[in-house]
Design goal:
Elements lengths: L13 H14 L12 H8 L3 H13 L3 E4 L3 E4 L11 H15 L4 H26 L1
Antiparallel strand pairs: 1-2
């Protein structure tokens, strides 16, 4: 089961954090179709947020077709996202890279910016290359 962590200082709306964390768990294979999400009450008890915030996040996930609410039973995962399991060898390489980056004195924001730049570069180049083959 997913455990939500709310960062009140992030500037990101609480319900958006729940949506993002659920999608990340789906991408990493931590949540699978058929899995039950925590109840609104469980999330409220763990995070001290308003129950309506949890329900808003779950409604958005439902609109995206990722989960479905079953009256009296809870909210269940309908489909997964991506193909990057949490135990992927690529994850282990990324952990080592992040450790090296920290050891080199980079801050979290520096690492995020560097990684985002490389992602943009690589995926833009990949999309251009695919367009050339079409």
């Amino acid at each position: 089961m997913v455990e939500y962590r709310i960062d009140r200082r992030s500037g990101v709306a609480t319900y958006v954090q729940i949506v993002q964390q659920t999608k990340q768990a789906l991408r990493l294979g931590l949540l699978q179709p058929g899995d039950k999400l925590p109840t609104a009450r469980e999330v409220v008890e763990a995070t001290a947020i308003n129950p309506n915030t949890v329900l808003k996040a779950y409604r958005e996930l439902e609109r995206d077709g990722l989960v479905e609410a079953r009256r009296g039973l809870g909210t269940f995962v309908r489909r997964s996202l991506g193909a990057a399991p949490a135990d992927s060898p690529l994850r282990a390489e990324l952990v080592l890279w992040a450790q090296r980056a920290r050891g080199a004195g980079l801050e979290r924001e520096d690492v995020a910016a560097l990684f985002a730049a490389v992602l943009d570069e690589q995926f833009t180049a990949h999309q251009r290359h695919e367009g050339d083959q079409a």
